């Protein structure tokens, strides 16, 4: 049990921060985290004291990351030409694309000129992960039950969001429920609901593929069950990750060596219109949903985390760090798509 009580997560690279010591904020570097149970988290920090470097464990409350720098908003992308979808039977599955530059299918319906850089996304991600630690501590201290439902098309990016959210959280108070059989029943997974003080992420497993990909099942019963759960105290956040047709094709191809698409991949692509109709059915029948435009994966992950944090009024939330989800990428399912 001692190992469980002091499980340590180390960062690959020290992150700049400030430590409150002897009444002053001193420059420091964050090296990792440790969970001490009951939602408490301590941070491993390197700091210079009287000219000598020291590594200490400190409570989260004594640490602050530098205030977020608000970059100038990139110009809105208005002239991105859609990438044509190859004709069925062309060299999509049977042929190969020579490895090299990634197709720019992310430009389809994307409001920005470029993809978010790795350095920028990592800094913002760490700041939001500190807020996730506060959220987990609040849930543990107050007995909140938090469920985050992630749905979307194949290759939309929900797995990446799960990794971002859970990377530094206490695994004893965080669970991920992933899909089992594709024919799973279309209803909330009651047996997997969070207990008091627990956060559960449902990664394409709350409704099951029959509902998401075919629009079948008793969706009205699902909506009614959700309303009862929320009335009973469940904190429920539902995110739908949306990618364009060309970007889905690119991501499926990149999963394979030499960009070769399999028969199963081609079947997913050929059902695009049917899945679109099913998506509209599910979103309309089981509100409220928040749609995330996910062609730019790092940017979509950050905005999705930002939405989760802003939707839950936890103790110690820094609104200057959490900010407001980008309305060009995040919208209520009932709201019109922003014109770019």
Automatic annotation (TrEMBL):
One of its GO terms (molecular function) is kinase activity. Residues 73-113 are annotated as: Disordered. It holds the Pfam family PPK2. Residues 101-112 have a biased composition (Basic and acidic residues). Gene3D superfamilies: P-loop containing nucleotide triphosphate hydrolases. Keywords: Kinase, Transferase. Residues 120-316 form the Polyphosphate kinase-2-related domain. SUPFAM superfamilies: P-loop containing nucleoside triphosphate hydrolases (SSF52540). It comes from the Bacteria. This is Polyphosphate kinase 2, PPK2 family. It comes from Geodermatophilus aquaeductus.
């Amino acid at each position: 049990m001692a190992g469980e009580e002091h499980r340590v997560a180390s960062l690959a690279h020290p992150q700049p921060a400030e430590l409150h010591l002897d009444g002053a904020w001193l420059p420091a570097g964050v090296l990792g985290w440790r969970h001490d149970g009951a939602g408490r988290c301590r941070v491993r920090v390197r700091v210079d004291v009287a000219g000598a470097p020291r590594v200490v464990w400190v409570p989260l409350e004594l640490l602050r990351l530098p205030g977020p720098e608000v970059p100038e908003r990139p110009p809105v992308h208005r002239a991105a030409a859609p990438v044509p979808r190859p004709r069925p039977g062309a060299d999509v599955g049977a042929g190969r694309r020579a490895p090299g530059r990634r197709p720019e299918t992310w430009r389809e319906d994307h409001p920005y000129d470029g993809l978010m850089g790795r350095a920028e996304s990592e800094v913002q991600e760490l700041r939001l992960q500190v807020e996730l630690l506060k959220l987990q501590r609040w849930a543990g201290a107050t007995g909140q039950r938090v469920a985050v439902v992630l749905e979307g098309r194949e290759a939309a990016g929900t797995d990446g969001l799960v990794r971002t959210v859970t990377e530094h959280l206490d695994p004893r108070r965080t669970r991920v429920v992933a899909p089992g059989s594709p024919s799973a029943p279309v209803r909330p997974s009651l047996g997997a609901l969070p207990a008091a003080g627990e956060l559960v992420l449902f990664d394409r497993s709350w409704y099951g593929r029959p509902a998401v990909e075919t629009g079948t099942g008793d969706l009205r019963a699902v909506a009614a069950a959700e309303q009862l759960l929320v009335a009973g105290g469940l904190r429920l956040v539902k995110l739908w990750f949306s990618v364009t047709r060309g970007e889905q094709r690119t991501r499926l191809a990149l999963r394979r060596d030499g960009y070769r698409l399999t028969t199963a991949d081609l079947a997913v692509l050929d059902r695009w219109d049917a899945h679109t109709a099913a998506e509209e059915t599910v979103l309309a029948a089981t509100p409220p949903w928040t749609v995330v435009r996910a062609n730019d994966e790092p940017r979509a992950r950050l905005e999705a985390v930002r939405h989760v944090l802003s939707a839950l009024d936890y103790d110690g939330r820094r609104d200057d760090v959490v900010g407001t989800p980008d309305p060009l990428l995040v919208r209520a399912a009932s709201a019109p798509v922003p014109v770019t």
